[in-house]
Design goal:
4 strands; Collagenase (Catalytic Domain)
């Protein structure tokens, strides 16, 4: 019997929202199932631009807010993963408006992107970018985002 992943939703500098919890948990469970991977523990932190900017400065040396940051601590599909995703609700709201998306759609898109970073995918080199994009496209179909 497969061990169930421990998924935690946390808030920092923004008001907790049970509807966001349900959206995020449902999205992450579908992605875990799609990739047939296992997380020992996965923490999602909804936060403000100010908070994520501090993380971005500390960990990436970039003095500006960003939409999403990921941190993974263990890798390997057999042993399971442990990781954190920090997501700025302020940036997500702004991007949703700019793109003509709902906040729900924007959050799913960001969660997909962050999830694949946790699995070790990146988009720096062209070949990595193409592979990550194909993974994201497959996930978007599952989540009915395309």
């Amino acid at each position: 019997m497969a061990k169930r992943s421990k998924l935690n939703i946390l808030y920092k500098s923004v008001k907790p929202n049970p509807a966001l919890d349900l959206l995020a948990l449902g999205t992450l469970r579908k992605l875990i199932s799609l990739e047939k991977t296992q997380f020992n523990e996965l923490n999602l932190l909804f936060c403000s631009d100010t908070f994520i900017k501090g993380l971005n400065v500390s960990f990436r040396g970039k003095n500006k807010p960003t939409d999403i940051l990921t941190f993974y601590y263990e890798t390997g599909r057999r042993t399971g993963l442990t990781g954190d995703i920090a997501l700025s609700l302020q940036t997500a709201r702004r991007q949703a408006k700019e793109l003509g998306n709902t906040l729900e759609t924007e959050l799913k898109v960001l969660l997909v992107h962050g999830f694949y970073h946790l699995l070790g995918f990146d988009h720096i080199a062209d070949t990595e970018h193409k592979l990550m994009k194909s993974k994201e496209t497959r996930a978007f179909k599952l989540l009915k985002l395309t």
